Amino acid sequence: MKVVLLPLFAVLFLFSCSPSTKIVKSWRDPGTTIAPDGNRKIYVVAMVKDEGSRRVIEDEIVSRLKKGQGVASYTTLTPDVMKNQGDSTSLGIMLRNGQYTDVILMRLVDVEKELSYVPGNTSGFYGGYGYYYGYSAMMYSTPGYYTTDKNYTVETTVYSVNPDKLVWTGTTTTLNPSNTKKAINDIATVVTEQMKKDGFLLKK
């Protein structure tokens, strides 16, 4: 944990102007090309313990792919199946049998807490000596305080099924998400837009 001293106006600027979710890095395999017709079948897997969050995340990603191109893993990979056949070999067999071309894996990598100090402020009126004499009645102070920011780092990786290799990866950070649904929506949007920018996904 690190402590950062921030003036009040900087904190206000940070929260009012900066997007809460942003891509910090991405990479794509230069040897991988995307067919112009976009004839692909993509399996989307959110690697989270909570089943409800898993479904929401996968649905958000699938909705941003070309219609009929993405398949949410929860439709075939139930919790029982994951428990009994959760190894990579079983997943590979299932992907090949289902004629999938790619698999998208998303997971939470880290939650970093940052403690920041916002200094207090003192204001008053300093006119002639008469006003200065009575300054204590005309001044007011606000105390400084500490605030804790949470920065969520999410990694999204894409592998081709045949051959089995990494073809795209991206890392996003989300600062102080107001609610889970909005954070998931923002991450899905940022990730898929970066994929399109990198030429990995075709635009709808």
Task: Outline the structure in words.
The chain is an alpha/beta fold. The chain has one domain (2-197): Double Stranded RNA Binding Domain (2-Layer Sandwich). Helices cover 32% and strands 34% of the residues. It is built from seven helices and nine strands; from the N terminus they run βαββαβααββααβββα. The strands form two sheets. Strands 1, 2, 3, 4, 5, 8 and 9 form a seven-stranded mixed sheet that branches. It has a two-stranded antiparallel sheet with strand order 6-7. A hairpin with a 4-residue loop joins β8 (145-160) and β9. α2 packs parallel to α7. The longest helix has 18 residues, at 180-197. Mean pLDDT is 77; it is low at 1-18.
Which short descriptors sum up this protein?
single chain; 204 residues; alpha/beta; Double Stranded RNA Binding Domain; 7-stranded mixed sheet; two-stranded antiparallel sheet; 34% strand
